[in-house]
Amino acid sequence: MLENEIVAEIRANGPMGIDRFMALALGHPRHGYYMTRDPFGMAGDFVTAPEISQIFGELLGLFTAIGWQMLGEPPRVALVELGPGRGTLMADALRAARALPGFTSCLEVHLVEMSPVLQRAQADTLKESGHRVTWHASIESLPEDRPLLILANEFFDALPIRQFQRYGTEWRERLVGIGPEGQLALGLDRNAAQGLTIEAPEGTVFETSPISLDIMKKLASRLVAQNGLLLAVDYGHAHFAFGETLQAVRKHQFASVLANPGEADITAHVDFASLAIAARRAGAKDHPVLTQATLLERLGIRHRAGILKPKAENPAEIDAAVERLAGTGPGGMGQLFKALAISGPGMAALPGFDQPDPRLAGTASR
Ligand code: SAH
Q1: By CB count within 10 A, which of 6, 133, 165, 205 is most buried?
Q2: Best mutation site among 60, 115, 117, 138 for ligand 1, i.e. most ligand atoms within 8 A of its Cβ?
Q3: What is the DSSP string of 144-173?
Q4: Is 17 in the pocket of ligand 1 (CB under 6 A)?
């Protein structure tokens, strides 16, 4: 059991950061949540945008096709997806990209996926696409000799975070230790965290994902050197905000983060502002953050739904999917999910990203 391994590691080395706990809970080679199962869909633990409707992947596929045109139609380009889940998004994107036959014959598919179970699911889903697929356990081995068109849906929210809490006039890291009854328990480091100077009221929680920032920095440097773009869609905030967002989900219900590690999905809100700064510092261009609602509307979700509906067995299902993906009311993903686009410095406004999002005006962006 993973819990026993974590307890043993804590007994040997002392309390561990939440980042270490998350990395083990999600990615432990034998017991990690993503390493052992396909968690998606109604029968699983949660449903993601590409699993709601084919339109999501189609629009993102067209986005990359236009990106390829904007790059001057390079003869070799890598279409990359980070954390492709079942491969549904990529399959839909490749089908939509056939609208530009030139693009289809120039692209090679590269998937960054740590889970062997999900790599197999992706191979199955993409068999029919006719494209050769190359898998990578991490971004480091992505090709270096051609432009990159990178998609990432609900990838960054699965990357480990660290949490710090305001304690008097200092910040202390929240660590996972062992409670009085031998169970995993959260506590504060005995020592102050170094280098964190920002002031906040007692008890405030500050989250940061060093590994996300590092991945973004590396990908941004690649886009500067090789050209291309990255589109990341995830739930999170457009402007920096304090507060705790770490959560666990199992069978479509919130669960305790520390209970049954390896059995529940653990995620945190993505801090898009910090990701954009990391990309900019590496020399890439960051485009204005959009809500998922605005991105999908600008890319033509309603137009595409109008084409699919007359052919559909149940047109009401398509309306419901559009409402779920782009709706901004309760039950809709449109406002909570955001999209960040990064590109090589020479790329002008990307499709949909030419103007800021009125839905994110002011500070009410969380
Ligand atoms: N994009 C898919 C799946 C999202 S779940 C969808 O929208 O349905 C997160 C995905 O990222 C899974 O495929 C998971 O195995 C993968 N993943 C999580 N952490 C990873 C890491 N550090 N390296 C590579 N892949 C990772």
Answers
A1: 6
A2: 115
A3: SSS-EEEEEES-GGGS--EEEEEETTEEEE
A4: no
159 CA: nearest ligand 1 atom: 19
Q: What is the pLDDT of residue 364?
A: 45
Mutate to test the pocket of ligand 1, among 48, 59, 155 (most ligand atoms within 8 A of CB): 155
**Any ligand 1 atom below 6 A from CB of 34:** yes
Side-chain-facing half-sphere of 338: CA atoms under 13 Å: 27
| Among 26, 55, 114, 267, residue to substitute to test ligand 1 (most atoms within 8 Å of Cβ) | 114
Q: For 187-234, write each residue's pLDDT tens digit.
A: 999 999 999 989 999 999 999 999 999 999 999 999 999 999 999 999
Place of tokens 């967002």: 245
CA of 157 relative to ligand 1 center, distance in Å = 9
Check if the beta carbon of residue 108 is closer than 8 Å to that of residue 134: yes
10 Å Cβ neighbour count for 17? 18
Q: Mind listing the pLDDT tens digit for each residue in 43-60?
A: 888 899 999 999 999 999
- pTM assigned to the model: 0.97
Query: Ligand 1 centroid vs 82 CA: distance in angstroms?
Result: 7
Can you list the domains of the chain with their CATH numbers?
2-29+162-207 (no CATH), 33-158+209-254+264-360 (3.40.50.150)
Q: Given CA atoms 264, 269, 274, 276 in this order, what sign does their dihedral have?
A: positive
Compute φ and ψ for 81, nearest 5 degrees. -125, 135
The three-state (H, E, C) secondary structure of 286-336, written as one string = ECCCEEHHHHHHHHCHHHHHHHHHHHCCCHHHHHHHHHHHHCCCCCCCCCC
37 CA from centroid of ligand 1 (Å)? 12
How many whole angstroms from 155 Cα to the centroid of ligand 1?
5
